[in-house]
Amino acid sequence: MSDSGARRPIFSQEETTYELKIPHLKRLFKFLIPYKKWLLLTLVFMFVATVADLISPYLLKQAVDIYIPKKNFKGILIIGFLMILMLFINKECSKNKIRLANRTGQMVLFDIRKALFDHIQNLSFSFFDRNSTGRITVRIVNDVNTLNNLFTNGIVNVVTDMSTLIIATVIMFSINFKLALVTFSVIPVFLAVLFATRNAIKRNWRQVRRKISNLNAYIHENISGIRVIQAYVRQKVNRSIFKEVIDDVFLSWMKAVKVNGIFAPAVEVCSMIGTLIIYFYGVKLLKINGVTVGTLIAFVSYLDRFWRPVVTLSNFYNQLLVASASSERIFEVLAIEPEIKEDENPVYIEDFKDRIEFKNVWFAYKDEEYVLKDVSFEIKKGTMVALVGATGSGKTTIANLLARFYDPTKGSILIYGIDLRKISFKSLRKLIGIVQQEPFLFSGSILENILYGRPDAKFEDVVRVCKFLGIHEFISELENGYDTQVSERGTRLSTGQKQLICLARVMLQNPPILILDEATASLDTQSEIMVQNALSKVMKDRTSVVIAHRLSTIKDADLIIVMEKGKIAQMGNHEELIKKKGIYYDLCMSQIRFVKAS
Ligand SMILES: Nc1ncnc2c1ncn2[C@@H]1O[C@H](COP(=O)(O)OP(=O)(O)OP(=O)(O)O)[C@@H](O)[C@H]1O
């Protein structure tokens, strides 16, 4: 296939409105409340810095009008000293203002990120089904990052700029009302430019953000799917698609910059015209209205201080738009309620004494699309129950419901008569241990990973569990033994070894009920034998629910449940089901034929 013929990849494009939504911004600014003292102090520094900055032109006016004509060197010296003092105060206060604003801003971002992280950690599996890891990460990292500018500089700068602008205007009008009025006659022209360009600027930057979002999504998808990409040798095709995506970002960026570029020169032109007016008109007033040379110099200085903040103020509007869009997405996540909640008066169960019952359980991941239909069965204490059936028949769903990752849509699951929904999370997690198909280890040491569910366990307990599972020797032989790091850059462990460490993690908790969801499916034959041996030991005298594709591993199960399209097709032990010559018999026969043929 030629590069040009390559189909575009499917990647998420998040639509963002970029409308200014005041309720979101209000909610966002509430995060500032705990830091109001710091904010107030920042504003004090800001105010002092602004006043110090605005006093200088007035001092200059005094020097030019009073002390220079009189050749009063002492006066000039004092003015000079005062101007240096003002500069010093301005710089010192600005420095403190920036430091405090950054500190407060970072604390606020930390709080928002923490709120999001805490909230997401408690959301139900259904949320993670609907949202990819990439998208969730974008919420916690990128969306919060986009608020960075607003909280660290934006708010303080805008207050500084607004006050500079207002104070400069007031001073100019109080020095000479007429001259100020004439100087500002250029403002309507500026406002016309502002309104003409504002929508175009907004539209173009929105486009840039959309393109950048595409770029992020494409990069994320490519890195997550790198194994598939390399397996299908898609690098060349992907490179050309990536170039297209990058070109899109570049072109939209350049377009936005071009439109944006109109604004700053417009401000400069207005400022320049204002200055010309001051000189042209001021010189006329010089003779008739008692306007002094010092007044003109001070006016030019104040006018400069008036126009400088205008550009930053318009940028602030953009920042608010971005913040409004990001906060909308952040609050959207914060508003999601976990679907699986602990009962208000949960029942604590210390031990598993009796049996588990699935009573007319129906379940749909979405709407009315039932993937379990009227499923009823019983798991007696100390027995091994196996779930078999074609792919997609609902085996994992049963395991997920038993672990209460989801609740049944209809019907109930009872642990000796108590509805699973009534049982406290803590006792449920103590009762049920799960070993999944894909072993997952956190970055850290092997010991930390084993202790994950019981951090207070003793090292001897860990060693005992590992000896029981037959992995103590292999771990001890590693360079750093139990302290060996298993992060990305750490020791590479085989999938089988990782699975055994996961099993040790579960066993340290010693749960009376064990769910094994195709725990050996992703292993090679040798690792499978190792893990299977460990599992046999672990399942002895324990209640277990096993999902396995290889039927030889579940032949000894006390109860085999054969699933078909979300329904129980057959139930019984191996001998009974073989005699019945139904689906189970067919499954066994097809596996035997497959083994013989291979
Ligand atoms: N998170 C999910 N969201 C929506 N549908 C899902 C989800 N997980 C599973 N399903 C659907 O539910 C049905 C049952 O899936 P389940 O994973 O329980 O089957 P299974 O028998 O365990 O399959 P396999 O042997 O392939 O693991 C399938 O049609 C599947 O597409």
UniProtKB/TrEMBL annotation:
<protein>
    <submittedName>
        <fullName>ABC transporter related</fullName>
    </submittedName>
</protein>
<feature type="transmembrane region" description="Helical">
    <location>
        <begin position="155"/>
        <end position="175"/>
    </location>
</feature>
<feature type="domain" description="ABC transporter">
    <location>
        <begin position="356"/>
        <end position="590"/>
    </location>
</feature>
<keyword id="KW-0067">ATP-binding</keyword>
<dbReference type="InterPro" id="IPR011527">
    <property type="entry name" value="ABC1_TM_dom"/>
</dbReference>
<keyword id="KW-0472">Membrane</keyword>
<dbReference type="GO" id="GO:0016887">
    <property type="term" value="F:ATP hydrolysis activity"/>
</dbReference>
<feature type="transmembrane region" description="Helical">
    <location>
        <begin position="262"/>
        <end position="282"/>
    </location>
</feature>
<keyword id="KW-1133">Transmembrane helix</keyword>
<feature type="domain" description="ABC transmembrane type-1">
    <location>
        <begin position="40"/>
        <end position="320"/>
    </location>
</feature>
<dbReference type="Pfam" id="PF00664">
    <property type="entry name" value="ABC_membrane"/>
</dbReference>
<dbReference type="GO" id="GO:0005524">
    <property type="term" value="F:ATP binding"/>
</dbReference>
<feature type="transmembrane region" description="Helical">
    <location>
        <begin position="181"/>
        <end position="201"/>
    </location>
</feature>
<dbReference type="GO" id="GO:0005886">
    <property type="term" value="C:plasma membrane"/>
</dbReference>
<dbReference type="Pfam" id="PF00005">
    <property type="entry name" value="ABC_tran"/>
</dbReference>
<keyword id="KW-0813">Transport</keyword>
<feature type="transmembrane region" description="Helical">
    <location>
        <begin position="72"/>
        <end position="89"/>
    </location>
</feature>
<dbReference type="InterPro" id="IPR036640">
    <property type="entry name" value="ABC1_TM_sf"/>
</dbReference>
<dbReference type="GO" id="GO:0015421">
    <property type="term" value="F:ABC-type oligopeptide transporter activity"/>
</dbReference>
<keyword id="KW-0547">Nucleotide-binding</keyword>
<dbReference type="InterPro" id="IPR003439">
    <property type="entry name" value="ABC_transporter-like_ATP-bd"/>
</dbReference>
<dbReference type="InterPro" id="IPR003593">
    <property type="entry name" value="AAA+_ATPase"/>
</dbReference>
<keyword id="KW-0812">Transmembrane</keyword>
<dbReference type="InterPro" id="IPR039421">
    <property type="entry name" value="Type_1_exporter"/>
</dbReference>
<feature type="transmembrane region" description="Helical">
    <location>
        <begin position="38"/>
        <end position="60"/>
    </location>
</feature>
<dbReference type="InterPro" id="IPR027417">
    <property type="entry name" value="P-loop_NTPase"/>
</dbReference>
